[in-house]
Amino acid sequence: MTIFFLFLIVPILVALLLGLNWLLSPQKPDSEKVTTYEAGSAIVLNQVRIPFSISFYIIALLFLIFDLK
């Protein structure tokens, strides 16, 4: 029963909820969302501004692990 639930029902539920979110969410950005940021930099689609080193993520994960214990 749990294997069936995990591999069949959960993905169907996830796909259904994601589809409902996509259908019911507003698709038109207003004028405030397409203006420049407070810092004055313009919005550039699909571009990462500053690539982070993997060491930042490792330090953050270690902090979470040892902070929660």
Q: What's the shape? A: flat
- Look at the helices and sheets and give the structural class: mainly alpha
Q: State the helix count.
A: 2
Using the CA coordinates, give the radius of gyration: 20 Å
Largest sheet: none
Total beta strand runs = 0
Question: What is the end-to-end distance?
Answer: 34 Å
H-E string: HH
SS strand fraction: under 5%
Compact summary:
By secondary structure, the chain is mainly α. It is built from 2 helices and no strands.
Output the keywords:
69 residues, mainly alpha
Textual characterization of the structure:
With 69 residues, the protein is an all-alpha fold. The chain has helices at 2-24, 54-68.
Summarize the helices and strands and which ones pair or pack:
Blueprint (H helix, E strand, L loop, with lengths): L1 H23 L29 H15 L1
